[in-house]
Every structure is written in structure tokens, then in C-alpha cells.
Design a protein that fits this description.
- The chain has 348 residues and is of the alpha+beta class.
- The protein is 35% helix and 14% strand.
- The chain contains eleven helices and seven strands.
- The chain has a seven-stranded mixed beta sheet with strand order 3-2-1-6-7-4-5.
- The longest helix is centred in the N-terminal third of the chain and has 32 residues.
- It is globular.
Length: 348
């Protein structure tokens, strides 16, 4: 009798354990598959970010890459004009040349006509200008004019050069631009504007103008740099993966610190790609950004993958596009001044 009772108890225990295991597995699967009703947006520290809500995601991503940051008073000043020297510093940082620029002499020998003015007034930026010259972003025969507002046409040329597309731009010198004010674009810059448009970096305004001499704001610069960064990564060998999240998981430590997890994405042709992804990676979410650990199964995403690791990501709507509109939201910033931070210590 005791033996029978022991067998019954053992059978019950095994059955209970199996039942609990199945319930736990089902609960975990449901949790991993459930889309959050409200995704936690990545935090922005700037008090005035609502001055340019359309660029929140761009600003946050460029801040995370240390391309620029805010001011000591906690503001970002998104509508502040970007000067030429500031734009040069940003482009050099985006290219990953920050350490190279810092390693250069505080008073490098520069060939520019206004080199003395630059070295005396902006010694913190001299190394960045030298790096920009070494990497083909600037022409040795030109003036830097560091305080001059960085115009749309000038920034277009700077970013196209940062991507190494000078030959393509030279080949487009005779291109016809359809803007109402295309005659205001210098002949030497036509090819650069054309390439910048083809690469999705910039476009015209809704009224058919380009406004080549209009200054670029800090918020607009963030959007332009974010798009340029995508092309820089592709140039480095990264590939785009467009599909649906099938699985995504992170170690428990991701709650307190960024750590690598794994994401599986099914493409339109039903191929499955498995990649490493950092929990704190910023994922573009329309005009804002979320962290990668906010992604969920069935999300539509565009991943930029380098060496099997996700280096950039965007969350798509049901009918999204791979890149956001390339007009740096000019219609929303047209009367907003221009933007960039002239922090002499950071040049951001």
C-alpha cells in the first residue's frame, strides 16, 4: 500500500512539474511576442527639444555618436545657426576621425588664406580643419570663413565630399536642376547638390525652391548627418536588411546596462537573418527614437548590419520607407533661423 501511495505521489509531482514548465514556457513566449502598447522613448536631456520635435530622433542619434551635444545650461538650441567651422567639426567626427583631429598640433600649418584667423580665434578646431583637409573635405585654395553661416549648398558639398563622391559630383556639373531658384546655385556646386539629392541627403522645399544660401540649423544638421551616416556605414561594407522581427532577446543584465542580444528577422523572400544587437542601440521611430530592447516580435524594421552586428536600425510603419524624407523638414524649420552650437570646447 505504501509503495502504491509513493508511486501516486511521484506521478503527481512529475505531472505538476511538467504542467508548470509548459505554463512558464507559454508565458515567456507570449511575453516575447507581445508588442508594447506604449514604447519607452529614449530620453533626451535637452530642455528645449520641443523647439524642433521633428528632429528629436536625429538629434539623439547624433548625440549618442558624440558628433555634438548640448550646452551647459541643458539646452540644445535646435534653431541656432551652424557656422562653417562647426559643420566641419561635425563632419570630421561623423567620419570617425575625432582622435586623429585631436592628435594634430594645436597650431597645424594650414594653407588657407584665413588660416591665421582660424588658429587664433578657433584653436580648438584647428586639428579638425587639418583632418578635413587631409581627407578631401576642403579645398586648400579656399577661405574657411569660420564664422560664416553654413549654407545648404555649402553643407551639401561638405557631406558629399565626406562620402567620397567627388568624382560623381564632377561628372554631374552640367546637370539640370529643376528648382525655381537653381540659377542661384553656383556652377561649381551643381554636381554636389545633384549627388546629395540622389543619395537622399537633402531635397528642395515644397514650393519648388532649394534656397541654396539659406543657413542650416542645428536640428537640420542633425537630420543631414544622420542620413549621411547611413551612407558612410554602407560604404564601410554594411548591408541593409528589411523585414519582420521573428525573435529578439537580451540577457537580464540589459535592464541596468547595455549588452548584446540576438535578433532574428525574416525578409520578404522568407529568408531568416540572425544578428547581434546592443540593447541600448538607438532605433529610429518616426521622428523620435527608442532603444533596441523596446523592439518586439512582428515589428517591421530596416537594419543596417556590419559583420553580423546591427549598427543602425529604423522601425517602420506598416507601409514605411527605408529612409525618412530627405528634405531635412525645411518646411517646418523655414522660419526657425539656423542651428548649431558654437561651444568652443567641444565645437558641437
Amino acid at each position: 500500500m505504501k509503495k502504491v501511495k509513493h508511486i501516486l505521489l511521484s506521478t503527481f509531482a512529475v505531472s505538476l512539474a511538467l504542467s508548470l514548465s509548459v505554463q512558464a514556457a507559454s508565458a515567456n513566449e507570449a511575453a516575447s511576442s507581445a508588442k508594447p502598447e506604449v514604447r519607452a522613448q529614449a530620453a533626451l536631456k535637452f530642455k528645449d527639444i520641443n523647439d524642433a520635435p521633428w528632429a528629436e530622433g536625429n538629434i539623439l542619434k547624433m548625440q549618442s555618436k558624440h558628433v555634438f551635444q548640448g550646452f551647459e545650461d541643458g539646452t540644445f538650441r535646435p534653431n541656432k545657426p551652424v557656422t562653417r567651422v562647426e559643420a566641419i567639426v561635425m563632419a570630421v567626427r561623423l567620419m570617425g576621425l575625432d582622435e586623429e583631429a585631436k592628435s594634430k598640433s594645436a597650431s597645424p600649418s594650414l594653407p588657407f588664406q584665413d588660416a591665421d584667423h582660424l588658429s587664433k580665434k578657433y584653436p580648438w578646431a584647428a586639428g579638425y580643419v587639418a583632418a578635413a583637409l587631409d581627407h578631401g573635405l576642403l579645398d586648400a585654395n579656399e577661405k574657411i570663413q569660420p564664422e560664416k553661416p553654413a549654407s545648404r549648398v555649402w553643407v551639401s558639398s561638405l557631406l558629399v565630399k565626406s562620402l567620397g563622391f567627388e568624382k560623381e559630383a564632377s561628372a554631374q556639373t552640367a546637370a539640370k536642376l529643376s528648382f525655381k531658384d537653381s540659377s542661384a546655385i553656383p556652377a561649381a556646386s551643381v554636381g554636389y547638390v545633384k549627388v546629395a539629392m540622389e543619395k537622399g541627403l537633402i531635397s528642395g522645399y515644397p514650393n519648388g525652391t532649394f534656397l541654396p544660401n539659406k543657413g542650416v540649423t542645428r536640428a537640420e544638421m542633425a537630420a543631414l548627418l544622420d542620413r549621411t551616416n547611413e551612407d558612410l556605414m554602407e560604404k564601410a561594407g554594411a548591408v541593409k536588411v528589411n523585414g519582420t522581427v521573428k525573435e529578439i532577446s537580451f540577457p537580464a543584465a540589459s535592464v541596468t546596462a547595455d549588452t548584446y542580444g540576438e535578433i532574428k528577422v525574416e525578409t520578404a523572400n522568407q529568408e531568416i537573418g540572425t544578428f547581434k544587437i546592443e540593447s541600448g542601440l538607438l532605433v529610429g521611430d518616426h521622428n523620435k527614437a527608442i532603444k533596441a530592447d523596446q523592439l518586439a516580435v512582428n515589428d517591421k524594421v530596416v537594419l543596417t548590419v556590419l559583420d553580423q552586428k546591427v549598427v543602425d536600425a529604423r522601425l517602420l510603419a506598416s507601409k514605411g520607407s527605408e529612409k525618412p524624407a530627405a528634405n531635412d523638414q525645411p518646411q517646418k524649420a523655414e522660419n526657425a533661423g539656423n542651428g548649431k552650437k558654437s561651444d568652443k570646447k567641444t565645437g558641437k
